[in-house]
Amino acid sequence: MAGIGRMHDYRNYDFIKHKAMYPEVMQKLYKHFGILNLFCPHRPNGSYRLNLGLFEERQVCKMLLELSKVEGILNIQDIKINGSTVEKISNDFMKNTPSKGVFEGTYLCEKEKEDFELREALGTKYLGW
Fold first, then answer.
1. What are the distances in angstroms from CA 111 to CA 43, 86, 103, 106?
2. What is the longest distance spanned by two Cα atoms in the chain?
3. d(CA 88, CA 124)
4. Is 102 helix (H, G, I), strand (E, B) or coil?
5. Model pLDDT for residues 84-100, shown as the tens digit of each residue
6. Angle, vertex CA 20, rays to CA 68 and CA 115, nearest 5
7. How confident is the model over 16-48, as pLDDT tens digits?
8. Burial of 106 by CB count in 10 Å (0-12 exposed, 13-18 middle, 19+ buried)?
Protein backbone atom coordinates (compact mmCIF):
# COMPACT_ATOMS: atom_id res chain seq x y z
CA MET A 1 0.00 0.00 0.00
CA ALA A 2 1.43 3.36 -1.02
CA GLY A 3 1.74 5.95 1.70
CA ILE A 4 0.11 9.31 1.52
CA GLY A 5 2.49 12.23 1.56
CA ARG A 6 2.09 15.06 3.99
CA MET A 7 -0.42 17.65 2.97
CA HIS A 8 0.57 21.30 3.11
CA ASP A 9 -1.67 24.33 3.20
CA TYR A 10 1.06 26.74 2.14
CA ARG A 11 -1.39 29.60 1.59
CA ASN A 12 -2.12 29.55 5.32
CA TYR A 13 1.30 29.02 6.90
CA ASP A 14 1.29 32.70 7.80
CA PHE A 15 -1.60 32.37 10.26
CA ILE A 16 0.90 31.76 13.08
CA LYS A 17 2.13 35.33 12.75
CA HIS A 18 -1.37 36.72 13.28
CA LYS A 19 -1.32 35.29 16.82
CA ALA A 20 1.89 37.13 17.80
CA MET A 21 1.14 40.11 20.02
CA TYR A 22 4.58 41.71 20.21
CA PRO A 23 7.12 42.69 17.51
CA GLU A 24 9.91 40.80 19.27
CA VAL A 25 7.85 37.60 18.96
CA MET A 26 7.59 38.14 15.19
CA GLN A 27 11.34 38.64 14.95
CA LYS A 28 11.92 35.33 16.73
CA LEU A 29 9.37 33.55 14.53
CA TYR A 30 11.00 34.93 11.38
CA LYS A 31 14.45 33.93 12.63
CA HIS A 32 13.33 30.43 13.60
CA PHE A 33 11.09 29.55 10.63
CA GLY A 34 12.33 31.99 7.97
CA ILE A 35 10.28 34.91 6.71
CA LEU A 36 9.42 33.16 3.43
CA ASN A 37 7.75 30.36 5.38
CA LEU A 38 5.57 32.88 7.21
CA PHE A 39 4.87 35.37 4.42
CA CYS A 40 1.80 34.92 2.26
CA PRO A 41 1.18 37.23 -0.70
CA HIS A 42 -2.56 36.78 -0.12
CA ARG A 43 -2.22 38.60 3.24
CA PRO A 44 0.69 41.05 2.87
CA ASN A 45 -0.76 43.85 5.02
CA GLY A 46 1.57 44.77 7.84
CA SER A 47 4.75 46.56 8.80
CA TYR A 48 8.11 45.32 7.64
CA ARG A 49 11.77 45.93 8.43
CA LEU A 50 13.68 43.94 5.83
CA ASN A 51 17.43 43.38 5.69
CA LEU A 52 18.06 43.37 1.93
CA GLY A 53 21.35 41.54 2.50
CA LEU A 54 19.34 38.44 3.40
CA PHE A 55 17.93 36.57 0.39
CA GLU A 56 14.58 35.74 2.03
CA GLU A 57 13.93 39.28 3.22
CA ARG A 58 14.91 40.71 -0.18
CA GLN A 59 12.38 38.34 -1.82
CA VAL A 60 9.62 39.61 0.48
CA CYS A 61 10.59 43.18 -0.44
CA LYS A 62 10.35 42.30 -4.14
CA MET A 63 6.89 40.78 -3.64
CA LEU A 64 5.67 43.88 -1.79
CA LEU A 65 7.03 46.11 -4.56
CA GLU A 66 5.37 44.03 -7.28
CA LEU A 67 2.10 44.12 -5.38
CA SER A 68 2.29 47.88 -5.01
CA LYS A 69 2.91 48.38 -8.74
CA VAL A 70 -0.44 46.75 -9.55
CA GLU A 71 -2.58 47.28 -6.45
CA GLY A 72 -1.45 50.86 -5.84
CA ILE A 73 1.90 52.48 -5.20
CA LEU A 74 0.38 54.33 -2.23
CA ASN A 75 -0.23 50.99 -0.51
CA ILE A 76 3.35 51.16 0.80
CA GLN A 77 3.51 53.84 3.47
CA ASP A 78 6.04 55.10 6.03
CA ILE A 79 8.91 54.11 3.73
CA LYS A 80 12.47 54.25 4.95
CA ILE A 81 15.52 53.06 3.09
CA ASN A 82 18.63 52.71 5.24
CA GLY A 83 16.94 54.78 7.94
CA SER A 84 16.08 57.71 5.66
CA THR A 85 12.46 58.56 4.99
CA VAL A 86 11.48 58.58 1.31
CA GLU A 87 8.22 59.78 -0.22
CA LYS A 88 8.04 57.09 -2.87
CA ILE A 89 10.14 54.25 -4.17
CA SER A 90 12.17 54.98 -7.29
CA ASN A 91 11.71 52.93 -10.45
CA ASP A 92 15.38 51.93 -10.23
CA PHE A 93 14.88 50.55 -6.70
CA MET A 94 11.82 48.62 -7.90
CA LYS A 95 13.60 47.14 -10.92
CA ASN A 96 16.92 46.45 -9.22
CA THR A 97 16.27 45.84 -5.54
CA PRO A 98 19.66 46.27 -3.87
CA SER A 99 21.33 43.32 -2.16
CA LYS A 100 22.30 45.34 0.89
CA GLY A 101 20.65 47.89 3.11
CA VAL A 102 17.40 48.02 5.06
CA PHE A 103 13.91 48.59 3.69
CA GLU A 104 11.14 49.60 6.08
CA GLY A 105 7.51 50.23 5.30
CA THR A 106 3.91 49.35 5.92
CA TYR A 107 1.83 47.66 3.22
CA LEU A 108 -1.91 48.34 3.43
CA CYS A 109 -4.26 47.37 0.63
CA GLU A 110 -8.01 47.81 0.74
CA LYS A 111 -9.95 44.59 0.16
CA GLU A 112 -11.54 45.80 -3.09
CA LYS A 113 -8.13 46.60 -4.63
CA GLU A 114 -6.63 43.16 -3.95
CA ASP A 115 -5.55 41.34 -7.13
CA PHE A 116 -6.01 37.61 -6.43
CA GLU A 117 -4.36 36.48 -9.69
CA LEU A 118 -1.27 38.61 -9.04
CA ARG A 119 -0.99 37.36 -5.48
CA GLU A 120 -1.26 33.76 -6.66
CA ALA A 121 1.35 34.42 -9.38
CA LEU A 122 3.74 35.86 -6.77
CA GLY A 123 3.30 32.71 -4.70
CA THR A 124 4.27 30.65 -7.73
CA LYS A 125 7.16 32.92 -8.75
CA TYR A 126 8.78 33.44 -5.35
CA LEU A 127 7.49 30.63 -3.13
CA GLY A 128 7.24 27.69 -5.52
CA TRP A 129 3.50 27.12 -5.13
1. 10, 26, 24, 16
2. 60
3. 27
4. strand
5. 999 889 989 999 999 99
6. 25
7. 565 666 667 777 877 888 888 888 899 999 889
8. middle
